[in-house]
Structures are given as C-alpha cells and as structure tokens.
Amino acid sequence: ILIQVVTEGVCGLVCRRWYGACQDGRIKRWAWERRWEGYISGWRVPRRLVGHNYTVIALATGPDGTVYSAGRDGFVRAWFGIDNKWHMRTLGGQARYTYALAVGGPNGSVYGAGTATAITVWSGTDDNCPVILEGHPDRHTNSTVKTVAVAENGTVFAGASDHSIRVWSDGEHLRTLIGHTDWIAALVIGTQGRLYSGSYDRTIRVWSAAHGTHLSTLEGHTLPILVVVVGLDGTVYSGSDDTTIRVWSGDDGKLLRTLLGHSRSILSVAVDGGGTIFSRAKDDTMRVWCGATGTCRHILSVSVGYSGGYSAPLVIGQDGKVYTFDSEMVCVSVW
Fold it and tell me: On the CB side of 167, how many CA atoms lie within 13 Å of its CA?
C-alpha cells in the first residue's frame, strides 16, 4: 500500500512524499518530491549532480564555471557543462577527505585542505599530480586545516584548529597569523586588500592580506562563528551557532543588521551579484533574504543530515545558480 502525503509550507513550497507499509510493520518512505508552485517564477525541482557516495563537505566554483565538490568519500570532483549536459572528472592525490576547497590565483588553481595538515594544489591539466604546501603542525598534534582562501596574486591562507592562520606565497611558507583563541572556521578575501577570519572564539578578525597585520576585530556573535563571506560591494556576512546572520560594513566594520529566522546553527551563507543572501542551517532549510532590507523572501526545505558531522556547503556559480548539498539525495543540488 502506498500513501501520498502532500504538505504545503511557507512561500508556496509543496512537498510530496510517498509512504509504504513494510511486512515488519515499519513505515518506509519510498520516494519524495518537492517543488515550488505558483509563487516563485523559475524555482523548480533542482537538477542533481550525482557522483559522490557520501556526504559532500565543501563546494567551490572556478572562473570558467567549473564547480568543485569534495566529500567524505575521499574524492574531489570537478563538474562542468558541455552542450547543456553536465560532465564530471576526478582530481587525484588528495589524502582521505577534504574539509575545504578554494579556487584562485592567476591560473585558477584548486586548493584543498582536509584531515592532513598540508594544502593540496591542483593546477594545469594534470589532475593526478598536485603540489603539496607544507607548514601546519604535524598531524600528530591533532591540528586540522578547516578553511582556505586564495588571493588574486596566488597567496594562500589556511586556518586550522590550532588557532593559527598560515600564509604561503610562491609555494613557500611566508608567515603565521596569531590572534584567535579557538578554531579558525572561516577565511575569505575581502575588498581593499583585507582578509577576514571567523573563529569559534566568536570574533571576526580583519587582517592586511599583504602584510599580515591585524587591523580590527568584529564582535557581536554570542556563539562560535562558522562562516564568513564578502559581497561584491565589500559587505561582510557572518553566520554563527547563535542562529543569526550578521551583516557588517566592509568600510568601518559597523554592524548593519542582524538576520533572524533560522532556528539552529548557520552552516553556510552565499551572496549573489545582486546582493540576495542565501543561507543554510541545521534546521534543514535554505533561506533566501533580501540584501537591502534583511527580510526573508523564501524558505526551501533542504536536508542537512548528519554523517560524521553536519554539512551544508553553499555557493553561487558563475551561471548565477545556487549549488548546495542535499544529504537526503546524497547529491549536489542545482537551484
């Protein structure tokens, strides 16, 4: 016996799920579908990029439109479109799984950081012969690189669980930035040559990307900061375990507004070229916010799940589409 259950949520989101009775008396969900009906033009069941067989931890986009995904299955996948069809290739040489991905530098290289304490760099056409950047403490110190950012000139910044940010230039360890008192969870290059670092110590530190000097500290979150991103206009956005998204001026660091609505920790934030804000949280929703007013426009149901750690990476592609991981379908969803 199959029973179809239809529920309509906020903003016209319609979810359809089919349930069947098993011989052992359990109720099993056999299939599901969700879509937008009559409310948002263009929103529909997302396209799904299937290739990982376990949780996707990190996503990044390249200047040529390629989307990179890294999972707990130990693979880094590169997705690219040809003739309106998605194709996939695998980047080799990465040990175990990858916590963070970044694309940048003059050649658009791909940088991955994971359970090993080094940074893996893929560049050129040979995906199986990466360069390794050493410099973080040995893995026996239990240090893990959690986040990576790359400047336009190729300078690499990596934040780790040992509270430090290490900097590489031309493949050589250049300096170490000290100041945070807990794990570094997020790094991002901003405007005016600034580097922003978000930490479990509940602060965002602002650094000179060129010289490594500490410029200022943004304070306001009451629990660990998990994500920091910067918009095209230099505005800074941060998400925290305190369930809020805070918006800061990129000029003077002033708090502009606080976005309220999620009921659990903010796991990822992305901002498109028009200033629209997208966020994902442990409450299994993706919210779409008006950047100018801070009001929530739409709420989408996207499962976070838990497979050795919560995961909800979220990026805006060069095509303007939203790429994120759906744990229920074990795929990268393209909205």
Answer: 19
Q: What pLDDT score was predicted for residue 48?
A: 87
Task: Give tens-digit pLDDT for 216-227.
Answer: 999 999 999 999
Place of tokens 């658009």: 108
What's the predicted TM-score (pTM) here?
0.84
Here the contacts of 77-85 (C-beta below 8 Å, separation 24 or greater) are 77/51, 77/52, 78/110, 78/127, 79/49, 79/51, 79/332
51-65, 93-107, 309-323: range with lowest mean pLDDT: 93-107
Q: Are 134 and 118 in contact (CB under 8 A)?
A: yes
